[in-house]
C-alpha cells in the first residue's frame, strides 16, 4: 500500500512541519525486509517518537517507544480515535490508499467515551457467546479439509492453500455466514484488498463491497437469527442500528482474519527455520505455545496501527505534537524497545507485548483468546498431520509482504511426505 517508486510521492504538502523535522517515508523495499533496522535508525535519530511520511508524503508521527505507546493508548483525552480531528484532511486525495484505515466511519474503531464503551460492550458480549472448545473443533475440521486438498501432493504453498483461508472461514462461520459460497470467498478477497492492497487493487472499492455484503448478512439475521455473533449483536439490549452493526462487524472480521493469518504464518516460519524448535516441530504443544508468544514479540502480525489524533497541542517523547496531528502506533517497534530489553534479548516468557494494543481501544476481550484458539489449532493440526513438514526453499528466499501495517510472508512453500487418503 506504500508508494515506493516515485520520490516526489514522498514530498510533504507545502507548509507541513515534516520538511523541518527530517521525516522519512514509512515504507520501501529495505523496510519491507528488515523493518527493525528502520526502527533502530529512527530511534537513534529522533528518540521514541519519530516524524514519518505516509503514502503521498502525508506527515505523521511514529510512536516507537514501549512506554510512549502505552501512554498514548491510556490517555484518550489527549490522543483520541476520531479521525475527523486530523489537520491533514485538506491534503488527502479521494483515492488515497489509506482511506479504509483512517476515513471516518460510524464504527466502534472511531467512537470515543461512553459511545465507545457501549459499542465495544456489544462486541465483547457477542464474542463471549463463542464456545472456545467448539471453535477449536470447527477450526480443526476446516484445517483437515484444507490439508486433505494438498496432502497427497507432497508440496504446497501454505499462504494460499491454508494460512489465509483457515481463519477467514472460521471468523465468517462464527459471524453466521454460510461457508463455501462465492460471496463468502469474495468477502475474504475484498478484506485482503482493503487491508493490504497489491499493485492494481482498489482498496476503497473493496471496502465498499465488504460493507454491502455484511449489510445483507445483517438483514438476513434480523429475519432469521441464529447462534452466531451477528445475531447476538442484533439482539443486544443496546439496540445498535443496522449501520452500526455492519461497521462493527467489519472491524471484528478484519481484526480476526488478517492478523490471525499472519500470526499463523509467522509462527510456522519460526518453527520451520529456528533450530530451537526443531526437536518439537512435529507438534509439541509447549513448543507451539512458545513460538506463538515469541512471534507476538518479534514478528507481531500488526506492525503499525493508524492511529490516534492529538486532541490539543501537547508533548510526547520530547516532541511537540500539534492538535490534529496523526500518531501511528509502532507496535512492532515498541515490542522490541531496548528500554524494556536492555540486553538486546527479547524473551517469550511473558505476555506484556502490545500486539493487541493497550487501553480502552485495545482488542476487546475475549477476541485475543479466540485468535489464539484459531492460530494454535491451525499450527498444531498442520504439524500433527504432516510431521515431516519442511521448507521447500532456503529460509533466505522467503519474502515479506510489501506492507508497513501487516507483517507476513508473500508465500510459504513447503514439502512433506505425501499422505494417501
Automatic annotation (TrEMBL):
GO molecular-function terms, A-Z: heme binding; iron ion binding; monooxygenase activity; oxidoreductase activity, acting on paired donors, with incorporation or reduction of molecular oxygen
Top-level taxon of the source organism: Bacteria
SUPFAM superfamilies: Cytochrome P450
Coiled-coil stretches noted in the UniProt entry, renumbered to this chain: none
Family matches, as InterPro entries: Cyt_P450_B, Cyt_P450_sf
Family per similarity comment: Belongs to the cytochrome P450 family.
Protein name stated in the entry: Cytochrome P450
Organism of origin: Streptomyces griseoaurantiacus
Organismal lineage: Bacteria, Bacillati, Actinomycetota, Actinomycetes, Kitasatosporales
Amino acid at each position: 500500500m506504500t508508494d515506493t517508486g516515485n520520490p516526489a510521492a514522498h514530498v510533504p504538502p507545502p507548509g507541513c512541519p515534516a520538511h523541518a523535522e527530517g521525516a522519512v517515508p514509512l515504507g520501501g523495499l529495505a523496510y519491507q525486509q528488515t523493518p527493525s533496522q528502520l526502527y533502530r535508525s529512527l530511534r537513534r535519530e529522533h528518540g521514541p517518537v519519530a516524524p514519518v511520511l505516509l503514502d503521498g508524503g502525508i506527515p505523521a508521527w511514529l510512536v516507537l517507544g514501549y512506554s510512549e505507546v502505552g501512554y498514548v493508548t491510556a490517555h484518550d483525552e489527549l490522543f483520541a480515535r476520531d479521525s475527523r480531528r486530523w489537520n491533514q484532511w485538506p491534503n488527502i486525495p479521494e483515492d488515497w490508499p489509506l482511506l479504509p484505515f483512517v476515513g471516518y466511519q460510524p464504527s466502534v474503531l472511531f467512537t470515543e467515551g461512553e459511545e465507545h464503551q457501549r459499542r465495544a460492550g456489544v462486541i465483547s458480549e457477542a464474542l463471549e457467546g463463542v464456545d472456545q472448545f467448539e471453535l477449536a473443533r470447527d477450526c480443526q475440521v476446516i484445517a483437515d479439509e484444507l490439508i486433505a486438498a494438498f496432502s497427497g501432493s507432497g508440496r504446497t504453498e501454505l499462504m494460499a492453500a491454508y494460512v489465509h483461508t483457515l481463519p477467514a472461514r472460521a471468523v465468517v462461520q462464527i459471524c453466521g455466514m454460510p461457508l463455501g459460497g462465492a460471496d463468502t470467498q469474495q468477502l475474504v478477497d475484498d478484506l485482503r484488498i482493503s487491508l493490504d492492497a497489491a499493485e492494481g487493487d482498489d482498496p476503497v472499492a473493496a471496502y465498499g463491497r465488504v460493507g454491502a455484503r455484511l449489510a445483507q448478512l445483517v438483514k438476513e439475521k434480523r429475519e432469521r437469527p441464529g447462534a452466531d455473533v451477528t445475531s447476538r449483536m442484533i439482539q443486544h439490549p443496546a439496540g445498535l442500528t443496522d449501520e452500526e452493526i455492519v461497521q462493527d462487524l467489519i472491524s471484528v472480521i478484519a481484526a480476526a482474519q488478517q492478523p490471525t493469518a499472519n500470526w499463523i504464518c509467522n509462527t510456522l516460519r519460526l518453527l520451520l527455520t529456528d533450530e530451537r524448535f526443531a526437536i518439537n516441530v512435529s507438534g509439541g504443544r509447549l513448543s507451539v505455545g512458545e513460538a506463538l508468544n515469541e512471534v507476538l514479540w518479534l514478528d507481531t502480525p500488526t506492525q503499525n496501527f493508524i492511529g490516534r489524533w492529538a486532541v490539543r497541542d501537547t508533548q510526547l517523547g520530547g516532541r511537540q505534537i500539534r492538535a490534529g496531528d496523526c500518531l501511528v502506533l509502532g507496535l512492532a517497534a515498541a515490542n522490541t524497545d531496548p528500554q524494556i530489553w536492555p540486553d538486546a534479548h527479547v524473551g517469550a516468557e511473558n505476555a506484556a507485548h502490545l500486539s493487541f494494543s493497550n487501553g480502552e481501544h485495545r482488542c476487546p476481550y475475549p477476541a485475543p483468546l479466540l485468535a489464539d484458539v484459531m492460530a494454535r489449532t491451525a499450527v498444531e493440526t498442520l504439524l500433527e498431520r504432516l510431521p515431516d513438514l519442511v521448507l521447500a526453499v532456503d529460509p533466505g528466499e522467503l519474502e515479506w509482504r510489501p506492507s508497513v501495517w501487516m507483517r507476513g510472508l508473500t508465500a510459504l512453500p513447503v514439502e512433506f511426505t505425501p499422505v494417501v487418503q
